[in-house]
Amino acid sequence: MSREAAFIDGLRMLAGHQAARGLLDDAAVLEVGGEALVLTHDMLVEGIHVLPGQDAADIAWKLVATNLSDLAAKGAEPVGVLLGHMLGDDDECFLLGLAQVLGRYGVPLLGGDTVAGGSPRSWGLTAIGRATHRPVPGRSGALPGDGLWVTGELGAALLGFEALRDGTGADSAAYRRPLPLLAEGRALAPLVTAMMDVSDGLLLDSWRLAEASEVSIAIDTAAVPIATPESRRLQALSWGDDYQLLFSLPPGTQPPVPATQIGQVEQRGFVPLFVDGQPIANAEGLGWQHN
Amino acid sequence: MSREAAFIDGLRMLAGHQAARGLLDDAAVLEVGGEALVLTHDMLVEGIHVLPGQDAADIAWKLVATNLSDLAAKGAEPVGVLLGHMLGDDDECFLLGLAQVLGRYGVPLLGGDTVAGGSPRSWGLTAIGRATHRPVPGRSGALPGDGLWVTGELGAALLGFEALRDGTGADSAAYRRPLPLLAEGRALAPLVTAMMDVSDGLLLDSWRLAEASEVSIAIDTAAVPIATPESRRLQALSWGDDYQLLFSLPPGTQPPVPATQIGQVEQRGFVPLFVDGQPIANAEGLGWQHN
Lengths: 291, 291
Fold this sequence. Notes:
five-stranded mixed sheet, 8 helices, homodimer, CATH 3.30.1330.10, Phosphoribosyl-aminoimidazole Synthetase, Chain A, domain 2, globular, 291 residues, alpha+beta
């Protein structure tokens, strides 16, 4: 086990049984005064999660949008955010992007911290939401017999990343300004048995859903809508940043939002994931690992 | 106005009127299901808030303790924390310190994020608490006629910092492992008109309390208990990291915890702060500015 994996395991032990299934992947659910609050915290690091020199307005957008996407996967409506910001030369742009994304989703800035720093800069955001449906959907509820579904198309963020990196002038919005599917998450929450957002690649995130639910998942890659050319299908399914919703529905249930069935949930076999019938024994290389 | 100040002003505008008085200083208060939640987020940056090469167990302790201190100043009991962690070679030590501080205060780790990074590393922590008294104490309630009080001694963290920096072998625990005054904050919350923790120096934080409350504060420096030699009294009152509680009480009210009256709240004069009768017109140099 790598040192990183050992550390994350240590955090999971600290967090105890309830959170252990999802800590550092899934948002936390906290019961307060008869409400279920959903809490999530994500960091972005320059050079790792955002390109060096990327427009700070886009960084602010992505920082907020990725956390709101975690709320969307819980069917939660945002209540507010706390910002951890490392000051830089482009703070005016950051502020603009922050105002845009908070305004777009009607989310108040509740507080936070600003610090001096250096390169690489980093940012943190905590988003707080209110669950709209109980039980709050998680990764662990998928049942054998369920269908596996996904919203939208995969690979759009990959194309956007390449356009931005290479300066081709092609549309890079899917990478720079992802759209958290808050309304879709709320509509799906009462129906799904499990749900998560696709932040690290469809195949890796499907693996995680299978692991959390103690089932096997069989994916039919040809069924997955992709934004890339056909020749790049597997890459589109292994690339992160699309922030579509991945969910399981009981047999016969139709989703109330546009979505595509891409596979089946099965009794746990000898591996968590089957891709076009091939057993996948190891998550290595399936997608974007979490650091 | 500096670019930093302009940015923070921009954030305050984004946060709207209610949070504007305290944003990025004070913890946020959120009404949820009949409860008042208190939310705070602080970052630590290597080389700025912690010494380069400082024991990661102490970094973890301080990261949690400083956020719990913000809850203490609201009379809130901790409900949980979310961690933003940049991975490094000393993660095992970090985990140990994290387990120690969470265990000491009985606070669950709810979730968070781990990221790869570089130097300088940074860490973020969001602490969530439940207010034990309404109205929740803030910085803005001090009234002319109130006494100004502080718990404990100031300057202990300064001595601890010097001991650690210079490797003298003297006790550095006050700097490395501050103790959030959670029980004291809860005992004081029903009685105080305003309260905050002293994170950036007694004089600067008194200035901020006066500004938020739209009053003037007169401090008698000789009355302040200090941990340093008498010759370093002013330095002890300008140094941060002590995490004592600073609060105002109506005349005649005695605090239920050990504390010392160090000044008076007065009608707003031409400056917010008087130190031994001298008017202070500018916060510059009063303490540790917030980045």
